[in-house]
Amino acid sequence: MKGYTRTPNITCLICSKSIYRRPNELIKTKGHAFCSIICYGKFCRKESPCLMCGKPIMAKLNKKTCSRACANKHREGIRYKMERPHDKVVYQQGLKFRLLKQRGGKCERCNYPKTEILVVHHKDKDREHNDLDNLELICPNCHYEEHYLEKSWLNGYNLQH
């Protein structure tokens, strides 16, 4: 008996070649049948078009363009860091420099002289209220005392034996 062949009952989803698959396999795969691993790979491949030229690219890693040339064309009209919005870090640094010029480079509570470590403290504890009369330049130790000393777990604990 020569090679036994079944009558094809379905076609490959990719190349439309007639193939046979067991009925229970077709139920399991919801009718998806492929003639080879190559066609299955093509089915699994997810592509999206390049935003500039329309060439299909793999839809992974949030790629939007197919090449560096298309990426450059895509970025052509974008203006980076022009008229940038209110930057909190730059604003806080500016406040600190203004306070250093105005009040000197020492902690306003204990006169610690290292300007590099001084922090801006809001007296009313409202970070949005940045009037200069509401701000103090203090060292980290004084800042810690201001915010955390009253909440310390050692409060009321007798350290003398």
TrEMBL record:
SMART domains: HNHc (SM00507). GO terms for molecular function: endonuclease activity; nucleic acid binding; zinc ion binding. Residues 95-144 form the HNH nuclease domain. Pfam families: HNH (PF01844). This is HNH nuclease domain-containing protein. It comes from Candidatus Daviesbacteria bacterium RIFCSPLOWO2_02_FULL_41_8.
